[in-house]
Structures are given as structure tokens and as C-alpha cells.
Amino acid sequence: MSKFTDLLTEAAADGRLLTSAKTNIEALLAGATGELALRAVAELAEAGEWGELNDRFFKTLAFGTGGLRGRTIGRVVTQAEQGAGGPNGRPEFPCVGTATMNFFNLSRAVRGLIGYVKRHVGAARRPVLVFAHDTRHFSRDFAEFCAKVCTDLGCDAYLFEGPRSTPQLSFAVRELRADAGVVLTASHNPAHDNGFKAYFDDGAQIVEPHASGIVAEVNAIASERYEPVAERGEVRSLGAEMDGRYLELLKTLLLQPSLLDGAKTKIVFTNLHGTGGHINLPMLREFGFEVLTVPEQDIQDGRFPTVESPNPENAPALKMAIELAETSGAELVIGTDPDADRMGVAVRDASGRMVLLTGNQIGSLMAWYRLQTMFGLGWLTDSNRSRAVLVKTFVTTELQRAIADGFGVGVVDTLTGFKYIAEKLRKYEEAVPAEKKGDYRSLDQAATRALRLEYSRFFVFGGEESYGYLGSDAVRDKDANGATLMFAEVAAYAKSVGKTLPELLDGIFAEYGYHLEFGKSLVMEGADGAAKIQALAGSYAEHPPTEVDGAAVTRVRDFAKQDLYDQEGDLLPKEKMLFVDLADGRSFAVRPSGTEPKIKYYLFGKATPGGDLQAAKAAVSGGLAGLWQWLEQDAAGRAG
Fold it and tell me: Is 154 exposed, middle or buried (0-12, 13-18, 19+ CB in 10 A)?
């Protein structure tokens, strides 16, 4: 031990090991219960892997309002971690570190959440938590561990019997009247990552007033040691019965089920080795769609072996599905990420070519169709349209605002993160008088719609540019399962009026103006990368541009410093995001990612309705290409 301690001291003294990393190594070793941590750290130190140690220990993986997310498999895997190996070629043990996702940090997270929930519930009854997981490395192990800690500390736990989607966890928390829930997932991140995403009793990710209390509880825990209580809780399994309840809810998302009769739409579906096929395949087939799958991607495998990234936002992730569509003549490709909260599509155009749609375009098609149809069905009318609302994030296309304006309904912008859309849904539910709504969660969708249209605001549709969509307030997170069915209905509608989906989209552009958005990122990994991201974000805040790509800056909104309000007059929480509007109609936003080692850029361009649509597309696209080239060069200069 003395030799090992000397190694750390010498490395810190000559700058090979960060001071923060040395401090965190010592803290982890003091709080760990077994020998794995010591063996792994010693192995890395003796091999001179100081960069790996810095990346693993440069910080403590802080529990934020989204929970935890980090590496479960290091760039360098030690023999201690590899052990006997695990399923799908993974190591036996997760990555040792204070900045990584492992049982040490997981124990802190779940115990902090439980401690807060216990105080919130009080002593009158045992708290209830629900746990779900996706197909990632260690997800099942982590979920079982969380359920055990939960029962050890005197709470009851529900645990899904196998991999399930994130939206199904949200639904189950609400359906079971649980006090909190957790899904073990890193969503669409690379295979080496995993995470702990926490939900409160409304089925939404935690926000204030609970967020600060939970974060404080978790971050105050330094050791993985805990003492079980005398009165243990129980673990109950969730399976087919809960699947059935969720599936019945999804079916209510269809506005015109008759459109599906005889539509004979052929779909290629891929779950990218994740959870999406569990619900979507039987659901689509029940409604008469001919569904093909990519056999190699049906396998639930945390390596995601057929894709570089299991993210339907990225074109390569859908490559195999598109190839199958080309050979089979399918009209539509749908792909979902590992925890089935994001959905991407490719559609066939009038020339027969398969084309990818952006998340903004997918969401806009669904928003337009649902508004048009709800007015056609008489659900929305001149007398109640003021109570209907679309909810989107600030970095989601303004085309959805133009569409909503055209129908005379409201739009509310939120900060990035679906938890803020869910926070609006809680507000709208709570605005219905208690004596009118009774047990709101027991009511069918028609009843809750009537109540919100009379007393509150009716949520028509919500979405974010990053391929997340929601069509019902009975789920409080983005839902790729529901989006799959909603988009399949849009496809059936387009077919019924003799149009391809790109033609339908062009009709929307012609009426509301052509809108185009680019999503770009600069990736900066590890300890050095994290510092660069923060420095770059700080540079924009301290020295915002006054002219960009030849256009004057007309407005800068600094969401971290300014008091900004949404369209309903609610004060927005502070967030590190800068939004810049230019005199020529272009705009862009920049923010550090909360879940990935990157700084994100959102670019917006538009043209007024009328005129030559193809010319407008070329002009707007060229303008955004020039804007990104300028921003890349500017970022390089800011980074030194």
C-alpha cells in the first residue's frame, strides 16, 4: 500500500495525476466495501495509465436533476474489472471511479432518492418505488441492486421482469401510484455508458421543489456502506399485465383508427438492439401494418454490435433498416433507441427514394396532423381553441409555432429536457379543480381532455428536436412507442389523400413557410474535454458575438444570467444556454450537453410562405451551412 500511495503522490506532484483525481481516489478507497476498487486503481497506477485515472476520478459523478450518467466500461479495462467476464463480452465488474457509473455511485444515488422519498411520504406507510432497465451492459444488475437496496431500507419495490422502455417506467409510476421510479439507461449514448434516471410520483423526471432536496441527499453520501432496517420491504415483479395496461393507453393515441383499415402500409422497424420491439411490433401488427424487422438488430445486446451509435438521430443507425426497405419495397422505416424514448424515421418520396426526416420535421408532421384532425373531429373548436396548447423546447423548430398560430392554439417553450414539458403537464393537471377531477389517473382520455379544455389547458402534442415526442399526458416523458403509432397514422393519412410524406411536409412548408434546422456538436471527452467545454461555454457568456457571418446580432438571451419567462408567465430555471438572433432571420443556440461530453449548437433558418419552395430550400440550407462554418471557426478561436 505504501508503494501504491507513493506512486499517487509522485504522479500528483509532477502533474501526471490531477489533484482532484488523487483526492477522489483516496475518498473512494475509504468508502468502498470490497477490494475491487483498490486492485483496479493500483493496476492502472502501476501501468502508468494516468490519463485513464484522471478521466475516471477528475470529479465525483454528481447527481443532477436528470440523475447520473457515465461510463460503465473504461477506455482501459483492468484485469480486476474484467474478472471472469460477463454477458455479451462485457467485463465482470463495472468501471471503477468516482466519475463513472458503478455500484459505488449507484448506491449513493438510490439511497439518496429513498431517503428523500421517505421524508416526503412520512411514517404512515411504506414508500413504493418502481425500477426498470434497458438492454445496456449492467442494466439488469443495476436494477436488481436498486430494488434490493430499496427493500433493505424498508421500501416496497416493483421491478420489471425484463428490459422495458423509459416511457413505460413513467406510465407505471403513475398507474401504480408509486412515490418514485428509476430507469437504468443511458438512452442513446455509446455502449460503454449507462445511467440512473430518476422520476417522482407524477411519473416525470425530478424538478423543483423536489430536485434540490434529492440532489443534496445523494451528494452528501460518501460511502457505499449502509445498514438494512429491521422491517424490510418487498419486491414485486411487473410483466405482461402492466404491458397490457400501457398498450391500451397507446391505442387511445389514434385519432382516426379507420384510416388504418386496409392501409396495407409496409413498415421496416428496428429497435437497434434495445427495448422498442417489445411493445411496437405486436402493436403495429395488431393494427394491420405489415412489419418487417432487421433480424441482426432484433437481438437485445448492450454492445449494439451493428451500429456505431444506437441513436436514431444518426443516419448510419438506420442504414440496415433502409437497405431492407429498399429490397422489400417498404414505405416507411422506424427506428427507436435502446430505451425507446427517441424515434427516427425514413420515408419514401415521390421518386421512390428513401429519405430521412429530422426530429423537427417528424414532430411538425405529427403536430399538424393532430391539430387538423382534432378540429375535424370537433374536439377543438373556435370556443375552446384558446385552451389547447403545443409544448416544445426553445431549441425545437419554430415551424410548430407557425402551425399552432395557423390553428389559433397556444405554444409554450420550455428549457431543453422533457422534464420541463412534463412539468407543464403537471401544472395543467393540478389546475383542474379537485372536486371535478377526483382520481384523475383513473379517468379515460376523453374525460381528462374535457376537464382540461374546460378548466385548464389541453396538451395536444409535445416534442423536442432530438427525436422525442409525446401525445398524451398519461405518460410524462418522451415516448417512442406512442410516437411510432402516431407517426404510422400520419403515414396512413398521407396515403389516404394520395401523397407521400415528403409531399405532405412540403404542403406544410408552402402554407407556413420553409423552416430548416441544423444540429451540430463539438465532442470533447475526458477530464481535459470537460474543462474545454466549460471554458467555451463561459466564453460565449462573457463575450457574446455582436456580428455573425456578416449579419448583425439583434438579440442575445443568456438563460444562465437573465430572468426569462415563458409564454404563460412562468419564470424559467437558470440554464447554461445562449440564444442569438441575427438581423437576417437566422438564429442559433449553444449549450453544454447535460448527458454527453459535447457542446451543442442549434442553428435555425426560415423563409416566408409563398414563392418557389425549392429556391427557398436552397437559400435557407446555404445560409445555415455558412453559419455553421463561421461558428466552427469562431469556436476554435475561443478555445485558443
Answer: middle
Grid cell listed for 363? 414532430
Strands 193-200 and 266-270: unpaired
Q: What is the pLDDT of residue 262?
A: 72
User: What is the CA 14 to chain-centroid distance, rounded?
Assistant: 41
Count other Cβ atoms within 10 Å, centred on residue 286. Answer: 11
Q: What is the rounded distance in angstroms from the CA atom of residue 344 to the CA atom of residue 348? A: 14
Strand order of the β-sheet with 458-464 is 410-414, 388-393, 458-464, 468-470
Residue 496 φ/ψ region, left for φ over 0, alpha for ψ in the -120 to 50 degree band, beta for the rest: alpha
For position 433, what pLDDT does the model report?
97
Among 357, 388, 408, which residue terminates a domain? 357
Omega cis (within 30) before 544: no
Query: Do residues 385 and 507 share a domain?
Result: yes
| Per-position b or e across 358-372, b if 16+ CB within 10 A of its CB | bbbbbbbbbbbbbbb
* SS3 assignment, position 87: helix
Q: What is the largest CA-CA distance in the chain?
A: 78
Supply 151's cell numbers: 427493500
Beta bridge partners of 578: 558, 590
Separation CA 526–CA 420 (nearest Å): 28
pLDDT of residue 17: 95
Residue 353 to residue 376: CA distance in whole angstroms: 32
d(CA 595, CA 522) in angstroms, rounded, equals 14
* Residue 116 maps to a domain: yes
Over its C-alpha atoms, the chain yields an Rg (Å, rounded) of: 25
β-strand partners of 354: 348
Low-confidence ranges of the chain (pLDDT < 50): none
pLDDT recorded at residue 2:
65
- Residues in CB range of 574: below 8 A, 6 or more apart: 559, 560, 561
Q: Around Cβ 46, how many Cβ atoms within 10 Å? A: 11
**Residue 77: Cβ-neighbour burial (10 angstroms; 0-12, 13-18, 19+):** middle
In a domain, 34, yes or no: no
Cell readout for 578 is 445562449
User: What positions carry a catalytic annotation?
Assistant: 187
Both 353 and 365 in a single domain?
A: no
Among the candidates 342, 357, 372, a domain finishes at: 357
Among 194, 137, 168, 337, residue whose Cα is nearest residue 246: 168
